[in-house]
Amino acid sequence: MATKHEQILDYIETLPVGEKISVRRIAKELQVSEGTAYRAIKEAETQRLVSTIERVGTIRIERKTKENIERLTYAEIVNIVDGQVLGGRAGLHKSLTKFVIGAMQLDDMMRYTEAGNLLIVGNRSKAHEYALKAGAAVLITGGFEASDIVKRLADENELPVISTSYDTFTVATMINRAIYDQLIKKEILLIEDILIPLEETHLLHEKDPISRYHEKNAETTHGGFPVVDENGKLTGIITSRDVIGHAPGDLVEKAMTKDPITVTKQTSVAAAGHRMIWEGIDLLPVTDDGNRLRGVISRQDVLKAIQTAQRQPQQGETIDDIIKSQLRMPSADKLSLEFRVTPQMTNAYGSMSYGAYSTILIEAAMAALKTKNRKDSALENITVYFLNPVQLDSLVHIKPVILDISRKSAKVDVEVSLDNEIVGKALLTFQLLDR
């Protein structure tokens, strides 16, 4: 049976897009406490089912898929620019296709403004009216108000008119940054992207006999299975090691490993892979907040997904991507690398930041291992010695040396020099991943 938390989330999903939601209303309609309703609404916000706007409230929005995650809703625009909604609140759930900066003559402005757009402009009332009639929302910069005619048009057409105290350039930069961040999120693989769903998952029940495990094992050749109770909640996991010494008639609940490690659909594949490798786990159950089983992932699924993602073109550039793009191979020695310190890589004092420094060391060591054995690797431990600060625009040389390598692990020494003087050293330990 679903928990009250799950019932509230299911109820919110059934509400029409654009409907306003409140803690008090949810608590009254579903007969739950306001605390339970509040926590469920916050979870719905995390799942992008609702959006909360200051001075407006919480509204139901359309759940975004990976394909259109970079498309922002007008509700999100309000939060990004610290805006105030002057009219058209009923349209806050709608998504915008592009934004137009109104730094041109009125006729030219209207040629570029279409339905689903967001016109960013100052206190130009005629432009506001024409945009709303064309089916576009309006973002008024500089903290200006809208006329009563514009507010009425906004309400009639269900298109938001938003006011912000920021100037046009700042607003455009903030929205661009938000879209860029969404592109980066789009590239991050989550468990929900590789999940074997519940209907395809082979599982056992607590009251099944051990003989049922052997039947499942012979049928699927899988070595482990999640175990659930009569309500579908995960209670354990059973593997070939667990059944050793148990008679065929013994119950699964007597042999299973209780309270297994789990992940949720929103866990990143990289985090799950890291946990599986470190814990020596081949099968990881996926659960929801109520500990109900939603599916499983295998170590092979995780490694395959990570290796596939590494071959995909990047749409959004992270700090790590910027650092990697600066690494160069200066000579025929495939292990030696060069790195130019750019402004993004520095701290407040103009020296290379510890984060950038560590990333360079890790990337250089991983590149050396890849050249040596063609395997992917996961960092296990790093010890760094910062001997001298590295200034902006410095060209540093990185020399990784593989000290020891086995089938499962490797140790790499990395030396960083500037003008033939050693400025840093590190010792890194890696686990090597089988393809």
UniProtKB/TrEMBL annotation:
Gene3D superfamilies: CBS-domain, Hotdog Thioesterase, HprK N-terminal domain-like, Winged helix-like DNA-binding domain superfamily/Winged helix DNA-binding domain
InterPro entries the UniProt entry points to: CBS_dom (IPR000644), CBS_dom_sf (IPR046342), Diverse_CBS-Domain (IPR051257), DRTGG (IPR010766), HotDog_dom_sf (IPR029069), Ser_kin/Pase_Hpr-like_N_sf (IPR028979), Thioestr_dom (IPR006683), WH-like_DNA-bd_sf (IPR036388)
Taxonomic superkingdom: Bacteria
Ranges of residues in domain CBS: 195-253, 256-314
Pfam families found in the cross-reference section: 4HBT, CBS, DRTGG
Lineage: Bacteria, Bacillati, Bacillota, Bacilli, Bacillales
Protein name: DRTGG domain-containing protein
The UniProt record lists the keyword DNA damage: no
